[in-house]
Amino acid sequence: MLNKDLLQAQNKDLMQKLSQALKEDDSDKMAEYLQQFSEGVQDCILQEYADLRGTNDTAILAQRGIRQLTSEEKEFYEKWAEAGKSDNPKQALTDIAKAIPQTIIDTVINDMQEAHPLLNEVDFINCQGAIKMIINADNIDLATWSTLTSAITTELAGQIKTMDMTLAKLSAFIPVAKDMLQLGPVWLDNYVRIILSEASAGGLEKGILKGTGKDQPIGMCKDLDGSVTSGVYTDKSKVKLNTLDATEYCAVVAPLAKKPNGGYRTVPEVVLIVNPVDYISKVIPASTVRDSSGNYKNNVFPYPTKAIQSSAMEEGEAILGLPKKYFMGIGAGASGKIEYSDEYQFLEDNRVYLTKMYAMGIPKDNNAFVYLDISKLKALDLKVQVTNTEDNPVNTKQKA
């Protein structure tokens, strides 16, 4: 669990700026905001270390994001800190054959999912070094009552996809002030997990929602059956959604119940992913009702829906779909090692490290997501009628 105090308003503002820079592919701004964010996190951890250095209460430490490490994790951080303190950290790290323990990657994934609702909804797994992943494209039934004819086997084979997990790489820079290397493994772990999860989550969200497919995931908004130019997938055509009236909204949801190659599936719930501004200015007004007591109730949809905000979405657009129909795999790179980086120097008294991860994602089928135009989404027309009668002058009725 991340230390909530480290993600206060000022840091959230920085992460929003970082997300915007990521959306615009502005590497200079990304470096600037990551520097500010990492400096703030390091200052908080150094202060907490000073306050809690004599505390052995695991419950208190856990509340601050300090977790108990496995022996493998402890050894990894000890060797990293030792190499980082040397006069030649690049060579010292090269001499360490130990890769990042998979348990650290698992914890980073959990941290990202806790802080970013979208990542908690998709089929998101740690590939643990796998080069290729086999996914069931449409939850097909592999059992049959009849003879397994060549036609059936061909149909089944077409729905089982093999994904090359090395197609897209996710590089994360970790600036570590020299003072951080003195704190010990558990505190270094807390810092590394925060930086890795926050720095990676924005890139993952962008890839999941809008990824082009060229050296990055294939986004939910992409047409798997459309044209592909130099590895870039085209967007789906946007469907206009002007109201959350039951008839109009359910008409948009209904196609999700159709499997891409025939047949039907149940749709117990959908997600609606929108820009934070649109969520406040459009979705809330369109999905808010008043009960008989006059109290407002938000996020009331005519079909079971979970609304998710993401800065990777532009204003005026949304994605509606089945989140578990999106597969995202992430894992350490080929070596899984932490490397010393000369590419960026964010701080004066620092060491900058680099970890190369790979992450690849794709919708499991082309009918799982709808790309929406919500630029004209109207607010719900609330009407309140109050009637008084001579027999009961305080009797009131409200209609929404």
UniProtKB/TrEMBL annotation:
It is found in: Virion. InterPro entries: Phage_capsid (IPR024455), Phage_capsid-like_C (IPR054612). It comes from the Bacteria. Residues 100-373 form the Phage capsid-like C-terminal domain. It holds the Pfam family Phage_capsid. SUPFAM superfamilies: Major capsid protein gp5. This is Phage major capsid protein. It comes from Lachnospira intestinalis. The lineage of its organism: Bacteria, Bacillati, Bacillota, Clostridia, Lachnospirales.
